[in-house]
Amino acid sequence: MRDAPAAPHIAPSRAAAPRRDPERLAERLPADHAKLWRPRRVLIARDAQGSEVARHAARAGEAAGAEVVHLSGNQIRGLRGETTAETYRRAKSTLAIVNAPPSALKLQPIPPSADFRLDLATGCPAHCQYCYLAGSLSGPPVTRAYANLGEIFGVLPDYLGQGRVTSGTQARGGEGTTFEASCYTDPLGIEHLTGSLSRAIEHVALLAEGGAAIGLRFTTKFDAVHPLLTLRHGGRTRARFSVNAEAVTRRFEGGTASLSRRLEAMGQLAGAGYPVGLTIAPIMPIENWRPAYLQLLRDAAGVLPESADLTVELITHRFTPGSREVLMGWYPATGLEMDPAVRAQKRNKFGGVKYVYPKALMEEMRGWFAQSVERALPRARLLYWT
Ligand code: SF4
Q1: Is the shortest distance between the CB of 276 and ligand 1 below 6 Å?
Q2: Does residue 16 fall inside a structural domain?
């Protein structure tokens, strides 16, 4: 979707737009979550107004010092700047509350993680220099949170028993039909502004209590799990934490929670009875990658209670020509290796190319990770390597 430069239909907020006042937010939010996103603007589309998500976003946005604007239409405009950098800054500091389009209510398969995608939002406020959304979402990288949760949750029963990744499978059938909430966003990264992830967790637990074989999954680079700890989750949501060797998180993952905070948050959720997981991604053969990733595995083991139900997903770094172009525009000074000349090409069934590590290196890393995960996290289930 393309955004027009002007914003003539944007009306002032019904609530007076408060000045940015970090202390007001600090009163409302736990003090240790230094990386909670504070958008500059919260734009609430006409059809989303009155929804629980919109009310939550207006309240939390005001507390964070954001300008809250109730739009007279449903288009999110005014995000494009004179330069790529300006567009990026504007979009990344804007939260839009909109209704999910009809296409988002037709759930798509999402192997190898889950049976189906369940989008609560698209876009993410963080600044990871390899972000996989760069090749997937077009236009300025604004975060759009969906307001029509009733409609979104209403389609779930139609998909029960229909998936091919977990539904009815021997390996993962116990998870039921699974829905992945992190395909196009980081749902925990915006939870303090929307409350949507909590609603999804509780809704899935309610369906499970009614007899549905269902599971929700999300993955995150944030740590503000406090609101999730007391939810009635029924053990039906697996909370995975997207982690990496510390050198990678420090260098390439702007605007996210530190690695140690993510791991602590995983330990907290495991302690609250959630099944948890490590999404180790994107794996990169950085200098001394073996000791660096071994440290990660040991640190993860150190935060988990004995009884934790843990899975591990292993995803190597890859890029497409399109995502490379977008990322080079957003992060022109990046030190991230995105050199097609040192990569192998992989084609999908539609002929699209992606650049992955050469086969010999992939096999070496795959063997090392399989063995090291088994040693460091003997009770974990390794779901896949890609
Ligand atoms: S946290 Fe995930 S979705 Fe957000 S910028 Fe980083 S890689 Fe992209």
Answers
A1: no
A2: no
Phi/psi of residue 96, nearest 5 degrees? -110, 135
From the CA of 382, how far away is ligand 1's center (Å)?
23
The CB of 126 under 6 Å from ligand 1? The reply is yes
Residue 230 burial (C-beta neighbours within 10 Å; 0-12, 13-18, 19+): exposed
Cα of 177 from ligand 1 centre, angstroms: 25
Q: Out of 37, 186, 262, 317, give the residue to mutate to test ligand 1, the one with the largest number of ligand atoms within 8 Å of its CB.
A: 186
> Domain range spanning residue 28?
22-385
Residue 9 lies in a domain: no
Q: Is residue 309 part of a domain?
A: yes
pLDDT band at 350 (very low <50, low <70, confident <90, very high): confident
C-beta of residue 236 within 8 angstroms of C-beta of residue 205: yes
User: Which pLDDT tens digit goes with each residue over 144-179?
Assistant: 999 999 999 999 999 999 999 999 999 999 999 999
Which CATH number does the domain housing residue 266 bear? 3.80.30.30
Q: Strand pairing of 114-117 and 109-110?
A: antiparallel
Q: Could you tell me the two tokens for 145? A: 């949170």
Give 236 Cα–ligand 1 centroid separation in angstroms: 24
Say yes or no: CB of residue 121 within 6 Å of ligand 1.
no
Are the beta carbons of 173 and 208 closer than 8 angstroms?
Answer: no
Classify residue 15: in a domain, yes or no.
Answer: no
pTM for this predicted structure = 0.90
State the total domains in the chain: 1
